[in-house]
Amino acid sequence: MTHKALNLDSDEHVIMEVRKHWIVFFVHALGLLLAAFLPFVLFVLIEFFMPQLLSSISIPGNSSALFLFIYTLWLLVLWVSFFVDWTKYYLDVWYVTEKRIIAIDQRHIFNRGVSNLRFDKIQDVTIDVKGFFATLLNFGNVRVQTASEDNYDFFMNTVRNPERVRRVIFSQHNINSRV
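Now predict its structure.
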């Protein structure tokens, strides 16, 4: 989404773009890559441990063409899953401006939520970095708590550099509370 599509005020600019860490998409993509080889692994395991099972199955016609067709459908499903994961990863973003936080939550391929939170409504910003890899790769969860009566919180998992995100949000909050 371009900054023009955010409907910013004339005196408002994007200070920071907050995205999930690349490891999130990498883990999903690695899982899909491993799933692409799953039919071959199953075939080898069945051939090794139960060879009589494959010889007892009688399929009329060309069985290798049938296997190729089913495998191609499997790859198509994996490719669509990869595309959906990439779309959700790329379009799930927070924009921090001088006046507010704009949170775009890409829930599904055709389901997106856009929320705004002005800095005068912010009560607290907490970060949570758990685990060895989160500490090593510098990612964690960021929660922005509001001071309104509905207690609506902005929350994003596995954010890159969460301490920097917290620092920028607090500095903008302090600037806006002085004005």
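The first helix runs from residue 22 to 36.
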